[in-house]
Amino acid sequence: MNSRISERIRYVGVNDLKKSLFEGMWPLPFGVSYNSYLVIDDKVALIDTAEAGYAAEYMENIRRELGERKVDYLVVNHMEPDHSSLMSMIREAYPEARIVGNAKTVPMIKGYYGICENLHIVKEGDSISLGNSTLTFHMTPMVHWPETMMTYFHEEKTLFSGDAFGTFGALADGITDAGARLYGCSDAAADTFEAFNGEMLRYYSNIVGKYGQTVQAAMKKLAGLEISRICSTHGPVWEKNIAEVVSCYDRLSRYEGEKGVCIVYASMYGNTEKAAMSLAAELEKRGVRYAVHNLCTENVSYAYRDAFRYDTLAVGAPTYNNDIFPPAFSFMYGVSARLMKNRAFAAFGSFTWAGASVKLLNEMASKLGFDLISEGLSFPQAFTPEKCDMAALADTIASQVTE
Ligand code: FEO
163 CA distance to ligand 1 centroid (A)? Predict the structure, then answer.
């Protein structure tokens, strides 16, 4: 893979094709990349590092670009270990390199790696010069941790954005959106943004989803910068598709969904599942877009992706121990934890002798300010269309989503 992004910027990141679950939770069917960059001028800056399991490959990438030259600065935009784990190795390889971070980075560097010396602490708007290249630092707390900052390479209008604008999915055939392909995806779209879009939605909703407000604050702060290239820590470097990527992050961080329905359900003996499938069939008849996720058989990652994608959320759960069946409760807990807003909501589910789940799901949705478009469809024992009128719910949804 060609590592050259520009005369002065080189890609030295790695693809992770071994890990099955990111953060121990989120599936990686197409892998993930840990992006790291060199800015090479009279002095050399390394922007972030990579995950610990890739030390040899990462060091080889750096040596290939620099030969005998040294790293003068290691810029730490983000301390999460997928980007900082190789900091100690870089300190050992280039002991004179100054580690650049902000006041919130410093205790994390000490706590994770025991490094206390040769640190260069920056604050909003500070710069370092590499010769003819200027790097300016912008504090963007909680995108995704409190110490997160972004680095702007003034002369090349390049934003090193940390996790922001990142995606799951390893890189194949290129690094930039001029040709990068989603690794291992046989039906890859010709357009890089299209190819990575599902993995971007999943990355945002799974990892960054809670931080909509701070993503919005960061976007406002950076609005004055002229940006012709975004170098994130995961996924392609964006050059062609900057408008699409920024618009996608803007929409997601405002919790604005597309017209459509995310149906999420959990079922013990198939009755709530039949209700979910009945709703899907009725939506299909009305030409309403939808996605269906079974929480008992698939990772919740995909349900969060489509809960962020669509403006309507329908959640099905039977009553269990006079409560919400736990997989659905856990999903709704995650929706709450992500501070989701702006959703139309409907609950459904079966019970045997006393129904509680629909009422409790409605309560959780109400606390989030969701618009309850149905009082909920709670039905005893076996599913029948007479007991659980999904046609009527689909009519209500269709009248809203097709407005
Ligand atoms: Fe990719 Fe928040 O680390």
Answer: 5
Q: How far is CA 229 from CA 8, 83, 158, 179, 311, in A?
A: 13, 20, 5, 15, 31
Protein residue closest via CA to atom 3 of ligand 1: 80
Domain with CATH 3.40.50.360 in the chain: 262-401
**Is the beta carbon of 10 within 6 A of some atom in ligand 1?**
no
With 60 as the cut, is the pLDDT of residue 402 above it?
Answer: no
Cα distance between residue 299 and residue 294, in whole Å:
9
Domain 262-401 has CATH 3.40.50.360: yes
Q: Is 102 exposed, middle or buried (0-12, 13-18, 19+ CB in 10 A)?
A: buried
CB within 8 A of 92, min separation 6: which ones?
none
- List, for residues 224-244, the tens digit of each pLDDT value: 999 999 999 999 999 999 999
Give the neighbor-by-neighbor strand order of the sheet with 37-40.
9-11, 37-40, 44-47, 73-75, 98-101, 119-121
Q: What is the atom index within ligand 1 of the atom nearest the CA of 208?
A: 2
CATH no., domain 9-253: 3.60.15.10
| 144 CA closest ligand 1 atom index | 2
Quickly tell me which residue has 């659980």 as its tokens: 388
pTM of the model: 0.95
CA distance 26 to 379: 33
